TrEMBL record:
Residues 145-170 are annotated as: Disordered. Pfam families: HNH. One of its GO terms (molecular function) is endonuclease activity. It comes from the Bacteria. Residues 201-240 form the HNH domain. Keywords: Endonuclease, Hydrolase, Nuclease. This is HNH endonuclease.
Length: 278
């Protein structure tokens, strides 16, 4: 079943077209991991090789099983790729292909885990902001947590009804709103309404480096300098807008916050930030 699959192969072309968005997104993710590891230059081509091998592996799965994977970012795809990696003839094929197939499977499993984490964090984000705006701005309500002023190790994940995730400190989010005087950081002219909980203009807290990316950092990213205040429209926009509109917003916000990250020992550049928002 294991054969050489060129980029001109009809099945390869068909599946690449079918999964074009995930192909591009996975390539960006693989490039980010390569950059984070510091073992390869952007010109190495490793990330693009992973994306191509992903399609080749999907062709092999289709030929072996007789059907294709409908939802690529799914537990089903992970299971079927891992099953392929356990095939009795896979090791010979993997060796002949310079071990790119096994590396691609490992990277794709991490990609799917990240995408699920991203979805989980967005659900938690909505619930967190709802609870944050149900009570008056009173730090004693949250246990008088001390604000983070420098590098601090990330906390362990905790279970929520949406799954395991990193905890968020409400005090840090309240402080971020206060520092920006309860206005939208994208544009202070974005008028919302007066919140019944504290009589301040209603804004929502959003982690600029998203909490879904916490796995990439040993130090916590849950601190006020990484949290932006957004009007509800901008908050939805930064999650759901087309890439060009997201990029414009991120540029505004990154320019305001980028000088603060070194004091927390967090390394981030604009391209990496954009990659987190796909």
């Amino acid at each position: 079943m294991f054969r050489k699959i060129p980029a001109t192969d009809a099945k390869y072309i068909k599946l690449k077209e079918k999964y074009q968005y995930t192909y591009n997104d996975f390539q960006k993710f693989a490039q980010h991991l390569t950059d984070q590891a510091g073992r390869s230059l952007k010109s190495s081509g490793k990330a693009s090789s992973y994306a191509r091998y992903l399609i080749k592996l999907l062709v092999l799965i289709e030929e072996e099983d007789g059907d294709i994977i409908n939802e690529l970012v799914s537990n089903e795809s992970v299971i079927r790729l891992q099953d392929l990696g356990r095939h009795k003839n896979f090791e010979v094929y993997n060796k002949d292909e310079a071990r790119f197939p096994s590396a691609t499977i490992r990277c794709f499993v991490e990609y799917v885990n990240y995408k699920y984490n991203e979805k989980t964090e967005q659900l938690i984000d909505i619930e967190f902001n709802n609870k944050l705006n149900e009570v008056k701005e009173n730090r004693s309500y949250y246990g008088s947590s001390e604000l983070i002023q420098g590098p601090r190790p990330r906390k362990e994940k905790e279970m929520s009804r949406y799954g395991a995730s990193y905890p968020r400190n409400p005090t840090e989010s309240i402080e971020a709103k206060r520092r920006n005087n309860w206005t939208c950081e994208v544009d202070v002219s974005h008028v919302t309404f007066q919140s019944a909980s504290d009589n301040n203009p209603y804004v929502e807290a959003h982690h600029l480096i998203p909490m879904a990316a916490q796995d990439f950092y040993e130090n916590t990213i849950d601190f006020a300098d990484n949290i932006v205040a957004l009007c509800p429209n901008c908050h939805r926009k930064i999650h759901h807008a087309i890439e060009e509109e997201k990029r414009d917003m991120l540029m505004i916000l990154f320019n305001k916050h980028k000088a603060m990250y070194p004091s927390y020992e967090i390394e981030i550049d604009f391209d990496t930030l954009c990659a987190y928002y796909s």
